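Could someone model LJ64HWYM with this protein?
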Amino acid sequence: MKYYNINKPEEIVDFKTACIKGQGAEKGLFFPESIPAYSSQDLEELLALPKEELAFKIMKPYVGSSIPDEVLRQIVSETVNFDFPLEAINTNRYILELFHGPTLAFKDVGARFMSRCLGYFNKENTRDTTVLVATSGDTGGAVANGFENVTGVKVVILYPSGKVSNVQELQLTTCASNITALEVNGDFDDCQALVKQAFGDKDINGHLQLTSANSINVARWLPQQLYYWFAYQAWSRLNKSEAPVICVPSGNFGNICAGILAHISGMPVKHFIAACNSNDTIPRFLESGSYIANKTVATISNAMDVSAPSNFVRILELYHQKVMHLKDMMTSVSVSDDRTKTTIKQVYENDRYLLDPHAAVAYTALNDYLKADDWGIILGTAHPVKFPETIEALLGIEIEWSENIKVLRERSKQSTFLAPDFEAFKSYLLKR
Ligand SMILES: N[C@@H](CCOP(=O)(O)O)C(=O)O
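Reply:
Sure, complex below.
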């Protein structure tokens, strides 16, 4: 498979180069030159596969000859070695729980896949690679965990000071010595802008070999489509007469973009909903046609506090930049914190299911979209235990800590403050 740069289509690379570079010239994202198309017979066969084999079949065309089959098999089986259950919240609303990995968020899949691919490519590399990553909460912990002690890789995580939950902060500030956390006095979009600018800076690139572990990197983005294939296997067993509406909590739009990619490959979906919090650039864009990214707003679903979602350009590319065609398949809505809290309470009281704030945004949006007896799926992108501050205050319950959270709480945070200023970031990187 070859990938072209959306901003500079003459830049064409293979999977290995796309993974190592992370981002193309002129801040362009890499995009696959062709998308695999599965016939109904292929789909039948995919339904019957164990998850490791399904993951291999789906990822193989995207990786091409960059990684030998036996290595790729090993990488994907380590990537998906936990559960992805589709649970019923009530009669017609289901949740695909994506939070059973080591850092309790959906980002574990992409982070584990990318860290192992980079580890493989790095075997021939004599230089260390510096992985830059901006996080609004969940990516940072997953990347820290995925890259912990990977030889030849150093990770620099930028996160917005005071705008991630305590558990998320501990996950990204208490790691092995190859992981550094920079606490930025700004918001996620400031962190993401610093990272993107660093890729285009000659001095930094002369000094360090950089890559990105955000979903701008195809090796982080593409494996996210596996969730949708796992969901497909699970819902086909439910014998529903229609394909589902799938509602995805959306911040940087990498997850929903991967879902749409799976759908374009042939996986049946009736409609996608991109559920946003008050950071509503895309809902407003789809409504009015004007793309205006406002200042990022802090919400209780903090991992979605993104005002300029990197992957929206890929979603448009999937529809050949035709917004009209995209709107037939995807709706995007904004849900306030007040409505999110009401949903957490109602679902807990009526169904005894504990939604985290991100899933609650999606549940609210799905309910608004569907009639009561239509069926649909939300993606559960993070475990509620990551947000005890919000949930305990709202429901008056105490959330039980899992073993990995107990261990985290005993560690102490290590971070370095950084102004949201490119020269400050550059001078930090040049001293490394
Ligand atoms: N929601 C993210 C923001 C970055 O998204 P990514 O998928 O591009 O890494 C987070 O939790 O950090």
